[in-house]
Amino acid sequence: MTILLAVLYGVLLVCLLIVLGVHPQLSSHSRFELQRRTRGGDEEAMLLLKRHGLLRDMFSLQRVLAAILLVSISFIGVGLFHWSFGLVLSFLIALESGALARTRVLQQYSQKLYDRYEGKILGVIEHHPFVFRAIRSVAPIPSDSYDIESKEELLSMVEQSGDVLKPHEKRLIVNGLKFDEIAVKSIMTPRSVIASLSHDDLLGPVLLNELHTTGHSRFPVTAGDIDHIVGVLYVRDLLVVDGSKNSKKVSQVMDEEVCFIHEDQDLAHALKAFIKTEKLLFVVVNAYRETVGVVTLEDVVEALIGQRINDEFEHHTDLRVVAEQNIRKNNSPKSARDV
Questions:
Q1: Strand-strand pairing, 218-222 and 189-190
Q2: What is residue 246's predicted lDDT score, i.e. its pLDDT?
């Protein structure tokens, strides 16, 4: 009888160490990602998702089994080793069994054994929810979902996304998030390189050829100077002009509706305005209603997608670079002097 109790004592002690050595963990993937993979038929994701939902009950079951085994070991120990030594030994087992179970060899064996039967254990928990609700003794597992509290946090997540997002996808997201922080003046074609026409110019063969060679598809039309824009001439409208007959004036072909936008307006406002007005070009003005540049729908879309859009009429890659190269040619008569 004593030998049988000793064997049972040893078996229960080993079982206790195995139970304490098991450490079910949440997947490194988020619940959302596991659900996405499950919908795609990933069986491993299905198991991980099930573990995610039942992990609280799994820990509760582990505690209950450990308690039952510890009580059984203490009871048998009192019978085997006299009550005083048996209680002391049981006390030591209760204190050190956890640390012993976490040793590398025991923990690897325990985890390997658990992984083999995890599916069946989770199935038992699923089929007996009332029993496990009664023995539940573990606080709810913290959710892996959280609220993003700032735009900067979301930008940081995008930057740390690694290969999950392709470079152009990252660029599109970042540009979209910063869209309302970019001013029109930062993407406009500056005043110094605006190709404009006078409203009383004649659209004869010479002028039509000059317009074609500029590489632009739309031109502000002025009445006197660049600070008095009265229309916009679109190259597409020149298709109805017959240069072999009496030439028309620019004012007869131009679009008389001119849209102005302030240089400090953001690109989100500009895009909404382009959609609302159905125009392709806005004249950019400052606080004094002076013309400081022009901005097109292509400019705004390029800033959003982070990629150059090549208009079939455009030859210059960046007119702002042209403006920087031309800056010293403006307002520079021989007697000029900066003060």
A1: unpaired
A2: 58
